[in-house]
Amino acid sequence: MALLSVSGLYKSFSGVSAVDGVSFSAEPGELLCLLGPSGCGKTTMLRMLAGLEDPDAGTIEFDDRTMNGLAPQQRGFGLMFQDLALFPHMDVFGNVAFGLRMQKLPSAQVQARVQELLDLVELGGLASRKVHELSGGERQRVALARALAPRPALLLLDEPFASLDLDLRRALARELGDILRQENVTTLLVTHDQEEAFALADRVGVMHQGRLEQWDSPYNIYHAPTNRFVAEFAGYGSFLRGEVLDENTVRTSLGELTGRSNAALIPGSQVDVLLRPEDVIADESAPLALPVTRRQFTG
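^ that's the sequence the OP posted. Answer follows.
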């Protein structure tokens, strides 16, 4: 039985669909990601799960309970926004302890849990530091510790690293996966960064214009995309126009390409063949020479 089950969610604003019939499920302890460009509906999906928006149609079930109509504080979910929303008048300890104190836990229990989490996010010595004295990466860690402190049944992360520089974002993303798996918390991350999604998630959902185009493992999203949008969004690649010769062979401008296809190939039909950069292997003995028309240095 799935821990989280989303069925046919719809949400529109001023007559424009933001989420259009989205369905997916999550197992306990899974790290999931909604991936897509700005405006595709992924943040609206997150806000409906958190209870900050009501769906126009569809159901959200968690641990056999229907979440529709429940206020955010009744759901027991953790939420970490892109802007972090740390309390500037509190020190690091106070920020992390906030949710625990709202639960009216004993002081000793609060102290132990906060110290456990600060050690986990490698901020053990900064409990008394003020928020404005922290670096961007340190603030991210404080926000994560605060979200994890009450042991949420589900953790929702809305582009948590978007404001950081690239190197720090990648480093924190790697650490985040380790931390979440150590805490064994079921997590749904929203991002537009493919590398972030692939590095972190057990399963990825690619969204486009409010619809969930594919819900699959990162490997299959990249190597077996269900349509052209997923193929183009989830990695660099080029498309070659070709003619199907048989169920395993397509004739292109580069010659005949042979391999297995996820789709049923009809002889004589025209298709597009996705060519990833790592699929190209130089063969100096081949009679066909292909000119390089442009190159771009990316590091």
